[in-house]
């Protein structure tokens, strides 16, 4: 039997097909082009599904899992106005896909799905307490607690990107100040860099960039740029505080990182973990392991597919 995973993002929509051994046997991707409207995007998704299923029979598919940016309602199966999917307002995607393919469909936040993908596909359900953290355009998370995906009252548990790290910090897209996402995401790093450049006459390699990005900041810091080094140290402190808070809240065995910012590797992550290690309770630090996802860019597909087995069993 197969299970289908659909990973919906602001840039790409991806579809994968997994067999009983957890192998990704087919995958395809297409641009989301959200500006063209929801109906056009869903039609492209359906065409992608047809392409993935060209050499397979629908009767061999157990179900469809969908990971999407939030906010969304997993109980209704409805996507509710994600910032990076303009126009996707209260879209009943689960109902649309169930009616089209006559299969059970499970829609969940992409970071929650990713945590489930790690739990099932990387650790074979043997690590009962883990947290997945993605540091990319935004910051999101998913929590497996005692072998169960933590969802919360409305299905929005573990919105770790919106824990407030600095009450008077950077203005976040959610309207609050000092959220972890505003302080330490790729978007947040770029915004903080632009503000520093505007406030200071300090020379910096970043002044040569057409549009300052988090990657520009990371590269400048590696080249010894004083402004970038200072900013990155602040970002690493904020992320370390966020990680310590997460560990204290959920007491995991493993914390797994993903997302574009983490592609900077040890040069970025090692100082973060060193700072976090100094403030995490020793009793909770015992046996705690940090790692970067082994599933790479396909984690979103693995996570979406994992929804099928997990929710058909529970």
TrEMBL record:
InterPro entries on file: ATPase_NBD, ROK, ROK_cs
GO MF annotation, one: kinase activity
Keyword Kinase in annotation: yes
Keyword Kinase listed: yes
Domain of life: Bacteria
Alphabetical keyword list: Kinase, Transferase
Family statement: Belongs to the ROK (NagC/XylR) family.
Name of the featured protein: Glucokinase
Organism annotation: Evansella caseinilytica
């Amino acid at each position: 039997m197969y299970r289908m995973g659909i990973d919906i993002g602001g840039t790409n929509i991806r579809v994968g097909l997994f067999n009983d051994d957890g192998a990704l046997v087919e995958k395809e991707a297409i641009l989301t082009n959200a500006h063209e409207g929801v109906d056009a995007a869903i039609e492209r998704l359906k065409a992608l599904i047809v392409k993935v299923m060209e050499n397979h029979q629908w009767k061999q598919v157990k179900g469809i899992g969908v990971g999407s940016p939030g906010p969304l309602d997993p109980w209704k199966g409805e996507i509710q106005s994600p910032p990076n999917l303009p126009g996707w307002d209260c879209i009943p995607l689960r109902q649309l896909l169930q009616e089209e393919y006559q299969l059970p469909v499970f829609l969940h936040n992409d970071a929650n799905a990713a945590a489930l993908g790690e739990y099932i596909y990387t650790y074979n359900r043997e690590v009962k307490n883990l947290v997945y953290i993605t540091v990319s355009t935004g910051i999101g998370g998913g929590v497996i607690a005692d072998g169960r995906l933590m969802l919360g009252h409305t299905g929005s548990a573990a919105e770790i990107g919106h824990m407030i790290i600095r009450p008077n910090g950077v203005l976040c897209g959610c309207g609050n100040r000092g959220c972890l996402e505003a302080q330490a995401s790729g978007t947040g790093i770029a915004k903080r860099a632009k503000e520093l450049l505007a406030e200071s006459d300090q020379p910096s390699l970043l002044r040569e960039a057409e549009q300052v990005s988090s990657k520009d900041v990371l590269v400048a810091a590696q080249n010894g740029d004083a402004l970038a080094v200072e900013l990155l140290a602040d970002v690493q402190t904020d992320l370390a505080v966020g990680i310590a808070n997460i560990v204290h809240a959920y007491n995991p065995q493993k914390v797994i990182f993903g997302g574009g910012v983490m592609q900077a590797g040890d040069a970025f992550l090692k100082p973060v973990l060193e700072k976090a290690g100094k403030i995490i309770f020793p009793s909770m630090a015992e046996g705690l392991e940090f790692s970067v996802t082994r599933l790479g860019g396909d984690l979103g597909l693995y996570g979406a597919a994992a929804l099928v087995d997990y929710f058909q069993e529970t």
